[in-house]
Amino acid sequence: MNIGLFTDTYYPQVSGVATSISILRDTLESMGHQVYIFTSNDPKVGRNVYERNIFRFPSFPFTGFPDRRLAYSGALHAVQIAKELNLDIVHTQTEFSMGLMGKFVAFSLKIPAIHTYHTMYQDYLHYVANGKLIGPRAVKTAVRNYLKNMEGVVAPSQLVYETMLAYGVTAPIRIIPTGVEVNHHVTDEETQELRQQLGLTTQTPVALSLGRLAFEKNIEDTIDAFKEVLAQNSAAKLVIAGDGPARQSLMEHVAALEITDNVLFTGMIEHADVPRYYAMADVFVSSSQSESQGLTYLEALTAHAPIVVMNSPYVRDLITDPSIGVGLDDVELLATALLPYLNKTAQVGDVSKRDAKINEISAEHFGTEIVKFYEVVINEYRTDDERNSDSIFGAFSNPFKR
């Protein structure tokens, strides 16, 4: 089938959403489908640069979140492109500009549209006027309005599913966890080479925090816990891989705790290098409590790195055996949970259960489930006049009205 993915966020922007869309595209194409990405333009991508099956539209930086973009024109052009491509379905990945454009395309061509809800916006409201302009109630109303008239919604986790129900979403919802590439083939030589580049020996106990350095990720809690770790294992190192708006604040926090020699900030890393970072670590750690699907957790798992993270309905479904890791209800327990992995004393449980979980979260399984949902939606799509009269344009009214 011919599939149109509409997203405000895509490479070279770095985010879990961009990674998820890339995985979806690659997996669907490997299954023989044609996938086309409709997204915002990006200053890092030249206007004359060829990108296979990617269509970019004029955009501006999102207020308070400058590395994210919002498209401001091109809807009619998108309809023309989609018509020439003979799209069978629109799959939106954002509730903002490109998502609205995707709905407009679907309505104009009379094809079904579904949506993946990626972001728990109540955890990001501080980016807009320090949280004073938009509140949780407005988010609930906006999301419900956007999803009105959608033929289906993909929830990457039980947490998202429950949130959609609480918001009053009436479209069919299917839980389909985002898959990840499970065949990294990182060699021992590659992991040792990376350790040497970072100034680490083969025996250095290493905890890894990897992802965008944003304030809502609560990375300060990880740093505080690592201060406690060092009191019992002074040789341990914390590698913080990634970049973002919280980096300077985090570096200052490390300096204030006087643990600069034991905490390494790598800055932005290439996507292709990510598997090597997981593979060289003894344990992956995250103190974030805002993850809707936790792609970094899955990536760490596929590299056979145990994870120590904060509990959520999603984490409870993921961590079903000690070989996978530990989910915590209290951030104060982070240091205690990290030490067995760093000291090489952790009892990892039944490794076969970890292997089974890896298969369950594979990109192939993800793609198969998405295609099944597409087929159901397309088969059940209604084209009668009553449906069309229930205008999709309701989503274009003020999205934050009560």
TrEMBL record:
<feature type="domain" description="Glycosyl transferase family 1">
    <location>
        <begin position="192"/>
        <end position="327"/>
    </location>
</feature>
<keyword id="KW-0808">Transferase</keyword>
<feature type="domain" description="Glycosyltransferase subfamily 4-like N-terminal">
    <location>
        <begin position="14"/>
        <end position="182"/>
    </location>
</feature>
<dbReference type="GO" id="GO:0047228">
    <property type="term" value="F:1,2-diacylglycerol 3-glucosyltransferase activity"/>
</dbReference>
<dbReference type="Pfam" id="PF13439">
    <property type="entry name" value="Glyco_transf_4"/>
</dbReference>
<dbReference type="InterPro" id="IPR050194">
    <property type="entry name" value="Glycosyltransferase_grp1"/>
</dbReference>
<protein>
    <submittedName>
        <fullName>Alpha-monoglucosyldiacylglycerol synthase</fullName>
        <ecNumber>2.4.1.337</ecNumber>
    </submittedName>
</protein>
<keyword id="KW-0328">Glycosyltransferase</keyword>
<dbReference type="InterPro" id="IPR028098">
    <property type="entry name" value="Glyco_trans_4-like_N"/>
</dbReference>
<dbReference type="Pfam" id="PF00534">
    <property type="entry name" value="Glycos_transf_1"/>
</dbReference>
<dbReference type="InterPro" id="IPR001296">
    <property type="entry name" value="Glyco_trans_1"/>
</dbReference>
